[in-house]
Inverse folding.
């Protein structure tokens, strides 16, 4: 049976335009989704926009437009950003869609019917920017009297009737979940943070608001709208067709992995599994937290004017170059810094020199010296066998990294082979063989084509467009680009198209 794989991005708040951080989350999930498709799996890759809540209502008000109109506009920008970044999502859930309202309300009803929701009153601090209730002990009072949440966002004192979720009853079950499924939270840092937080005990969670209207109505009580995180988390179920999990999409629940930024793990590792347990629904296998990008060493912020627009970057450096840089620069899970210098270095050294030249040197010699005809595999020398073995082992190694979401380690593994292949071509010097032993030259070039084919096949998820062009030039047909297809040698005799450099050098003006 085909293994199915469900992966999600966080759904994006529509109170601001998309920036490089949002592109990063989206591209990381895209690489994983594409890789699983390459492995022949039945993939559902879900993304979307988080459109309710006080923050969105306030942003809309500030611009004097109805919240729905405001949400439509910004949601479309996120969709466009993902298109621009070549993000291959299968579904885009908007929390203002009817199907989502139905799903969130059904989840609420189920949790309520099971006895985990009660009406009370909330009194305490709320941070609208974080859309989070902040405990007294987490609030900082500044010298001028301002009070802020741990994120630095201002908090306000809220007092209103509210429905509560009995989160306090889930402490033991959550700890058991983490213990029995050591991979439920990744990587190790966030995992420790969550476990120690839950060990300290959990308070019931306020899950409705009455002081504003922009949200999903609580079933059976029109005075309340759902707390935006209850609404937002339910999007993952919406994509699977909830409340009808027996439908066409139902097989995609539970998710294999929710990829999230590290600042929202509490919502995903504590609230979300608790809501699901309360509803009697199966839990996702994993929540993985990635780090944050700074820009030239500084936190991105509107006031500093350093918010990076992914489209502008891809226009300047190239889309695949940008995708590559973001995936390569940082071990997935760590923080990183975007600097022009490192962007340019990576694209010139690793893409133009290492990979681009390897392909170009090989293909141009086939074009020039073999009339562009792909030679058959010849007799193999020891040196050939070593590099071919390294190539044959690569898919397994890369797969193992991808399975544990080590997106950057997987690239390093591919680069080991690229560097080895460059050393091989220098040792074998086919340009010299041209004069002394043309048959051997053909053998060497054929070994290189086969090695580059493995490399290119594995790099498709990272740089879909450029690598597709490289595979065209290698004479690899569309249906020969899966991992499975690597088990079959390309037939000799194919005419290869005229080679053209795929990864140009970037020259700073
Ligand atoms: N709406 C919530 C998520 C709800 S999921 C049920 C939210 N939205 S967000 O738009 O503020 O952020 C979405 C994601 O963008 C974050 O989780 C994070 O993954 C990513 N990033 C935003 N800024 C970032 C950086 N500077 N660097 C890397 N990623 C960051 O949170």
């Amino acid at each position: 049976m085909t293994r199915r794989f469900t992966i999600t991005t966080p759904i994006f708040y529509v109170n601001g335009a998309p920036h490089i951080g949002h592109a990063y989350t989206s591209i990381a999930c895209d690489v994983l989704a594409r890789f699983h498709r390459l492995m022949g799996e039945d993939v559902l890759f879900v993304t979307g926009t988080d459109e309710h809540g006080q923050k969105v209502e306030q942003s809309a008000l500030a611009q004097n437009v109805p919240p729905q109109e405001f949400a439509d506009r910004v949601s479309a920008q996120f969709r466009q950003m993902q298109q621009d970044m070549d993000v291959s999502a299968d579904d885009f859930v908007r929390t203002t869609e009817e199907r989502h309202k139905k799903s969130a309300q059904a989840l609420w009803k189920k949790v309520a019917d099971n006895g985990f929701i009660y009406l009370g009153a909330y009194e305490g601090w709320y941070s609208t920017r974080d859309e989070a209730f902040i405990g007294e002990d987490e609030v900082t009072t500044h010298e001028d009297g301002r009070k802020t949440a741990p994120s630095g966002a201002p908090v306000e004192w809220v007092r209103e009737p509210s429905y509560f979720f009995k989160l306090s009853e889930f402490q033991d079950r959550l700890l058991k979940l983490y213990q029995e499924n050591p991979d439920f939270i990744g990587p190790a840092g966030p995992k420790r943070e969550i476990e120690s937080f839950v060990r300290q005990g959990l308070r019931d969670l306020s899950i409705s608001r009455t002081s504003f209207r922009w949200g999903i109505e609580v079933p059976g009580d029109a005075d309340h709208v759902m707390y935006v995180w209850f609404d937002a988390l339910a999007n993952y179920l919406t994509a699977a067709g909830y409340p009808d999990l027996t439908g066409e999409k139902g097989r995609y629940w539970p998710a294999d992995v929710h990829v999230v930024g590290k600042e929202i793990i509490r919502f995903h590792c504590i609230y979300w599994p608790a809501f699901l347990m309360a509803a009697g629904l199966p839990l996702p296998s994993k929540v993985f937290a990635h780090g944050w990008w700074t820009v030239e060493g500084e936190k991105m912020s509107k006031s500093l004017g350093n918010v990076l627009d992914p489209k502008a970057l891809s226009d300047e450096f190239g889309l695949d170059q940008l995708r590559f840089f973001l995936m390569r620069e940082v071990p997935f899970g760590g923080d990183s810094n975007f600097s022009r210098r490192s962007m340019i270095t990576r694209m010139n050294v690793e893409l133009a020199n290492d990979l681009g030249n390897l392909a170009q040197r090989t293909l141009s010699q086939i074009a020039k010296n073999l009339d562009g005809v792909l030679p058959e595999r010849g007799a193999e020398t020891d040196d050939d066998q070593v590099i071919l073995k390294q190539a044959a082992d690569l898919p397994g190694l890369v797969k193992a990294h991808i399975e544990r979401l080590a997106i950057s380690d997987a690239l390093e593994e591919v680069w080991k082979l690229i560097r080895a292949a460059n050393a091989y071509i220098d040792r074998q010097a086919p340009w010299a063989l041209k004069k002394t032993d043309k048959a051997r030259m053909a053998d060497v070039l054929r070994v290189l084509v086969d090695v580059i084919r493995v490399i290119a096949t594995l790099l498709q998820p990272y740089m879909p467009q450029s690598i597709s062009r490289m595979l065209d030039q290698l004479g690899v047909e569309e249906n020969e680009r899966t991992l499975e297809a690597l088990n079959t040698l390309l037939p000799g005799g194919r005419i290869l198209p005229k080679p053209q450099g795929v990864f140009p050098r970037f020259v700073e003006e």
In short: The radius of gyration is 26 Å.
